[in-house]
Fold each of these.
Amino acid sequence: MKKVLYILLGILFIACYDDKGSYDYHDINETTIEGIDGSYNVTMGVTTLEIDPKVSMTMADPEDTTRFQYEWRANVAYNSTILLGTTRKLNYPVKLDPRNYTLYFRVIDRQTDLVTVATASLNVGAPYSRGILMIGENREGEVDVQMLAMNTDTVLCKDILANSGLPVLRDPVDIIHTGYNSTDKNIKLWVLTKSQAYFMDRMTFKGNETDVFSKLLYLSQSYDSDFVPVDVIPRIKDKAGNVASSSDRAVVCSNGYIFVGSSFMLGGDYYMDPVNCESSNPNVWLKAKPYLLYSLNKYNGIVWYDETNERFMRVASSYVTSSSTMVDVEGDPFDWDQRKTGRTMVYGENTFNTDGGSTDGNSFALLKDGAGEFYIYKFYVSSSVAKRDSYTINRSLATDFDKADFYAFSSRRTVIFYTVGSRLYAYDYNKGNEKCYLLEDFGENQITMLKCDTQIEPSANPIYLATYNDTDGGSLRKYDQGMDPNKVEVIPVPNACWTGLIKIKNMSWRANN
Amino acid sequence: MKKILYYIMMLPIFLSGCEKDLMDYEGLEGVYFAVQWGDSWGSELTWPYQPYTNVQFIQLGDADTATVNLKVMVTGSVKDYDRTFRVEVNPDSTTAVVNVDYLPLENDIVIKAGEYMAMVPVRLIRTEALQHEEKIIGLKLVANQYFTLAFPEWDAVKGFNSGDIHERFDASLHEIRFSDMMVRPTVWTGTDSSPYNDGAESGLWGAFSRKKLEMICERFDLTYNDFMSTTTMPLVLQNLIAKTMSQLLIDRYNAKDPVLEDDGRLMFFSGCPWTSKIGVPWVPDEDYYD
């Protein structure tokens, strides 16, 4: 009887007893991971992340893939986890968006369910943050963007636009990074084509068909044509990515409309109604030539050319809502109003030329009259616009000047470079000493772009020249301007010729994200 | 053997010492107005409980009527059968007139089986009079066979503080205060009187007036609500409005058809070449209408 009681009591109290019994213990396989660094710095779309960790096991073969499972993951805490690989050796062409991740290497023992983990910091940088952006056509004639990324070594990034998510585009025009701005959302990376212009994600270079200029417009009326920018200024003016003004911006569109905006006044990179009109006739739109002339070093509004009335016009600041005419005085080197001369503007360029005390850089306009004569007007778009000089191109000297495909004004000399087919010329317009030079003939290579650099090395003002042939594709060459006052020459810069490129239409500098 | 049976019978008593004793709700079953509102960034998780609700018809577009649903909650356990609570218009606090300013109230509202709350719908009518005065409908909950009045003295609940907090009120009462008066909206970029401009209107849009706002709405196809945040009224649109409206006023002035405010002064936006002072009528030049 008592035994029964004791059993019952045992049952009653056993539930309250903590189990501190002893068991049999068996050794299990232990895994150690070595050979993974503390951090990895890689570049999206450029780097292949290769890691060969040493995995040691006390009781098993690490290569036994039936038992052991490997996992490489890039994690963002509380956000995402991305599987990079499932083998012990990682070989991963980096496609992660630029940001910081934690890299996890996990060894999973299917037999014991034990997981051994090693971690590292993984810092993914944008390949497109610094370097020369080039826009042009691939062999199929489609618009593409390449970049000579210059973060550390110079690396050519290809097919950037092809992987952007935008539809296939034709007729490239320009590619523009708007440069430094204290407000991140005001910084834009524009891809300009004849049919549309898109601002891209600056980190990933992804595009969206809705990210177009009209998205930035607040208009008081409707217009019967689309606004497609062909130039956005001010442009980057130095290697650091600075611009003449961080709050002012002006845009000229392919239909001849001009917009100006102050992010300070408008609360961001926005624009109101166009300004290519006069205050006396605010609804009569004057068609602008696709050139915005301003001082590269300091923004004091713009000068533009009114194609409708053959005259230069002025937009003095980003706060005005219309354009104004400028006064001509007897004895000036040239007139703003060109109706009497029969000339029209064919090209314009902003430079760092300081002739006449233009410390922030003169602008140049190339005009042509009905007789085929060409004229250079030099002026300074400062707080007041000052005419500096005018020059007549001596056609008997300037070989095929009227047939030129591209023009480029030197900031340092009285020289305009121009190209005809495969030939590069320089014309010195110094009055009384005019000369023309055939600098180089690229033979089978067609010249597709000519620039005097005002962005990367504005003081040296080197020449960038792009060529193309069907066999070898595109190339980009850099030349220094010779400074011998008795002759004009260009000197190829060693190791500054890049081949295997697209058919370059335009290029620009990007200094940072 | 009997002893064995005794111990076996006592076993549940031994074991019952491990069970935690959870107490059921034993308070009265009552109803109370559980109306919450507050800052735009808050929610019912943070808004304080309120003794009244404001309704601005101007924010409702062109609607001629508006239905306000007031939340009433119950205390006590949820039941598996329908229950009814009673709500009536409180004549002590009501200035609105039934069938003029609001439609007759539904007095008996059902709390459905398994539910712990219901809405009291109050249907308001937009009248001309509301443009000039505010009307009030006071509501009161009335005890019945199902519910007492749960919180005749409601104390503000800690943690519900994203908005105006009323520390103590009677939660069996609630007021709806409604009007159609156009008050200066949240985004109005102008001042009535500038000390730097001899007391004249200044800023992008000058002084606020219903007439001015309605002109803007008509010109830009906007509604009053678009003026309630900088998301719908960004700085660039504020500037565009000033630029466009000032040009419109100038054109009207030049066409000998000037736009005047109700006090006879010239309407003003930044960009107009004239100044306007509230209360000072415009006096046209002698030859203006020649």
Amino acid sequence: MERLIFVLMRVVVTLKPGVQDPEGATITDSLQRIGFASVNRVTVGRHFDIEIPGRDEDRIRREVEKMCESLLVNPVLQDYHIERIQGPQPAG
Amino acid sequence: MQFCVVTYPGSNCDRDCYHVIGEVLGEPVRYLRHWAEHVPRGTSCVVLPGGFSYGDYLRPGAIAARMPVTGAIEDFAAGGGLVLGICNGFQILCEAGLLPGSLIVNDHLAFSCLPVHVRVEGDPSPFTHSLKQGEVLRMPIAHRDGNYRPPSDGAQPQVALRYCSPAGELGEDYNPNGSQYSTAAITNERGNVMGMMPHPERCAESILGGEDGMRVLQSAVDWWKEVGSYGI
């Protein structure tokens, strides 16, 4: 029996430049307070790793873009980019 | 005036809203579940209550905004129906695009649960119809993500309520979450959709320490009786 083949994509979501980032500001301040004086600024984002069956990376990337626009990203505040983490390979 | 209170998984102010509308305001009210595909015929106002819909996962309100009932509420609002989002309900309306802008984490990163004062602003809306511009109301807030940010295109939202001092002055000292321009409530351009971070349903009976919340709900009823039958 043929094993299912998957592509693993990572969506990285970051705040748009200029959007207030209280969490990042607090982490910046904390790092500076505990001795990392060299830290200028920390911004906070998050990532989603999405496993999708198939071999066609272009199609899968387009599907992930649709997911970002439909749910994963708030376009008022956030930017995103998609990285391929693993090419087509059997699910691990 | 028929009200509907929406219940999403994780809503936790739905019963309070249902009680206040039915028992205190004395208007007919029913629940609307998250899987509903239509707002019942004859409904005049839909209330999206506070809580933690879908566990606040992803972003507060993000998942609820994509549920079938929210699409139905969008159609209902487009037809002139009144929509009031309270706290998490406000976050859902922003995520769904029914209101402009977004609500991010409070500037001090903590959950704020306290009474605040808000000042009625000038833009007309059914929800402030019976209130005077500049009037100050006292209502409780309870949220971690109430820091209002307007849309990045520079468009200014219609502000219905701003955080203020008991005397109605604006200032950082009276802004509990860092909201831009001390914004506590906004409406859409048409005025029939309002989102507010304070909880009117938690101050609608004197036994609970205040009745100012009733004035917002009563406004919607007054407006509907005076104007609503002609449409908005």
